[in-house]
Amino acid sequence: MTNKKLIVDVGMHTGRDTEFYLKKGFQVVSVEANPSLVEAGKSKFSEYIADGRLVIHDVAIADREGEIEFFVNDKHDDWGTTSKTFAERNEKLGTHNTLVTVKCATFESILQQYEVPYYVKIDIEGADILCLHALKAASQKPKYVSIEAALGSFEETFSELAILYELGYRQFKIVNQIANHKVRCLNPPLEGLYVDYQFDGTCSGPFGEESPGEWMTLEQTFDRYRPLIWEQARFGAGGTHYRSVSHKLYRVWEAIRGERIGWYDFHAKMANTPD
Questions:
Q1: Rounded CA separation 131/153 (Å)
Q2: Are 205 and 193 in contact (CB under 8 A)?
Q3: 104-138 confidence digits (pLDDT tens)
Q4: Percent of the chain residues topping a pLDDT of 90
Q5: Residues 6 or more apart whose Cβ sits within 8 Å of residue 91
Q6: 158-175 as b/e, with b when 16 or more CB fall inside 10 Å?
Q7: How many Cα atoms sit within 13 Å of 51 on the Cβ side?
């Protein structure tokens, strides 16, 4: 049975999204692998933990239980990852990783401990797809899911959206995270309580019916995302024109059109789910 007051935050980071969900009146289960962020979160949210509204799982999501190597990025703490490919990409961008060993668990094992969540936020730098596969085993799915959209290729994007469709999601949004600072919470609210919250690029931001933009079909989402992948391949971090003269010119074009190239979340809504 769905618990309409429960949200699962996979990739707690500094707890900005977790805090937002709690202030909107939801119960939250958060997952975070970075040991220092876990300790900071336990301290920051001690009162919520004590009254049972928040549970923090200090594990990395993996395809097994046990321990796993985790790359802590020394410059960007939101770039922590279990993916060697992601870690190598981050070092090519001029950052450094510190390798630590952390506990790991399957997302299935976490979901089995709770009722069906109303919404699941997934943002764990290279292991997001494991969470989607885990939802296949669930007899009932969350009404809403968001996941960091793959930027490397159309094939990666297709895999994410195809799994969401297989799971039963039929409506989608593409949200540019770099524009989060422009987003304001709706009043009256469509999800939970009204909160006057200031978002930034480290937040996933509003969810469900409050997520910005119009719901699209799968086909519309593919069509909208194709040019974004093209932009990323050329002008995104590590793209073929990154830090070149043409990249500077592209930034001028972004300023003119009023939208910067960024990183994106897919939001998905389950079909035929009663409100």
A1: 20
A2: no
A3: 999 999 999 999 999 999 999 889 999 999 999 99
A4: 71
A5: 97
A6: eebbebbeebebebbbbb
A7: 9
- Please identify which residue in the block is written with the tokens 């039963």: 168
Other C-beta atoms lying within 10 Å of the C-beta of residue 251: 13
| pLDDT one-digit tens code per residue, 39-55 | 999 999 999 999 999 99
Is the domain defined by 2-270 classed in CATH 3.40.50.150? yes
pLDDT band at 263 (very low <50, low <70, confident <90, very high): confident
Cβ(71)–Cβ(86) under 8 Å?
Answer: yes
Q: Let me know: does 122 contact 69? Beta carbons within 8 Å.
A: no
159, 129 contact by CB (below 8 A):
yes
What is the DSSP annotation of 10-71?
E--TTSHHHHHHHHTT-EEEEE---HHHHHHHHHHTHHHHHTTSEEEE--EE-SSSEEEEEE
Reading the block at residue 60, the tokens are 């990395």
- The CA-to-CA distance between both ends of the chain, in Å, stands at 13
Instruction: Provide the phi-psi class of 88: left if phi over 0, else alpha when psi is between -120 and 50, else beta.
Output: alpha
Judge if pTM exceeds 0.85.
yes
Q: Rounded distance, CA 168 to CA 141, Å?
A: 8
- Residue-wise pLDDT for 144-199, tens only, equals 999 998 776 777 888 899 999 999 999 999 998 888 888 999 999 999 999 999 99
List Cα–Cα distances, 252 to 248, 249, 258, in angstroms.
7, 5, 10
